[in-house]
Amino acid sequence: MIKTWISRLGIFLLSTLALLPLSVLYIFADGAYLLLYFVFRYRREVVRENLLNALPDRTLQEILIIEKRFYRYLASLVFEIVKMQSISKQEIEKRFVFKNKKQVQEYLDRGQSVLICSAHYGNWEWGTLGIGLNFRADHYPIYKPLSNPVFDHWFKKVRSKFGNKLIAMRQTMRALQASKGKPSMFSFGNDQAPAKDESHYWTNFMHQPSSIQLGIEKIAMRTNQPIFYFKVNVLKRGFYEVDCVPLCLNPAETAPFEITELHTRFLEKIINAQPEYWLWSHRRWKYKPQY
User: Fold this and answer.
1) Cα–Cα distance between 82 and 12 in angstroms, integer?
2) GO biological process: any one (predicted)?
3) Which of 108, 199, 236, 271 could be joined to 183 by an S-S link, Cβ 3.0–4.6 Å?
């Protein structure tokens, strides 16, 4: 009961904070960066190890620059996510612009469902809201529920603004069956490691043995729904652009793991180009392959 009331108080405070304009929230973000990086040293060891192992061609000085840029962006990202509670459609449309979306919409207009592949790169949460606004079809973001049920309910409600229909990972197949006969978009963030007992495919990702989720490949090969990679570009603070890149338009014709390798290599290129916008603080490589 106490935990529930504390959670509700936290939600009240976050909702109040969300009423402030982004210009003010970014001032808080600047202060949060200093606290996260220099005072609390939030996951500094994890981030440093990830960067050193994933970017072995960079000098230590370059790694330190990327590290600080990551924490500065992470602080801004936190307050951008807080702002989701009150952000308007007009604000999202101004700050999160979709390019090359015509081909995706043409499939949907013909009654063909599509699969969206993305990653925890840039502001993926605003991206979820943006998809709901930019395409004429039901959008089903696949997500992992939070362990705190009060926060999970609140965050799911926030993410569901503008027509999104969030689906817990384990309910994906059921949702696919329920959406048959109606054009839809299922979006996947495929850069997080599967659970240890679900690590069935390993490849080299960012210079390290990495287990990759197979969900989008399995669904694509079963349904032959085309896959588009939504590539997020950070233009400047609070402004983004998304390239809707056709990744695989005929999944049924691919070999096993070909789709998984396609989106893995695509993400590698994105990260190597601007590494500071990927989520380096998560423990992506905590599991090792068992030979």
Assistant:
1) 11
2) glycolipid biosynthetic process
3) 108
